[in-house]
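Appendix B. One record, verbatim.
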Amino acid sequence: MRFNPVSTLLALPLLAAADTPDYQAQFQEYLGQAQGYYEKLASKIPSPNKFDPVAAAAAKAGANKIDLIGLHNWKDVLYEPVTPGSTIPEEWWVLITGGNKTCLGHCGKVEAAFNETAAKFATEPNSPYMALLNCDNQPVLCNAWSSPVGALWIFEMLPEPSPINIFTKRLNLTTTTSDDLIQLQKDGYRNVANEHDGIFHPFNGFFAQNGLSVPVGYLLWAFGLLPSWAFMILMSLFSRSMM
């Protein structure tokens, strides 16, 4: 999984405060104040996220039965088939894809293979639910998850507030076919995928547990817009102020 150095700088002071019992109450107070400032600021910033509800409804109602997820609906979509009190997880396959901005136009083939696989799964019982996350259209959510394009995220969804297991696997953008994905399901994804347990975990991670995922997503998205020279100037000013 991608790990941005900027996210490391953001995470270190937060983790230090959270892991120190003597400062836990003070940290929560500052956290509440920061969230309040963020909500006021976010309400004035134009959203970079794009979502077409008509296209999403058509994709879900189509033969492939694919959900399109975004910052506003991803959690509701993933929890939708989960039955209260269930102990057997509902399996979701989410392809992290993109267009010219985030995938440089190279995600078309793997996305086509994913759509073809979804069409096959739609006719089989006990098959995974399928969804797409397009990082061109949903940059904040992709940054909040620290999710690289061309990756398959497999969620094992249980009723709230149960911890959620997530397994990730990078897919080859040029060679992956529907047969490969079908075989992955037959062989068992746990044998080849990596379990996600980092601070960016959408459910169990530090940022999610403290309500910071979306603010961090916006911060990382904003940093991504900066040219390298501007970032170096900011880092220089920050290091001088620290000294």
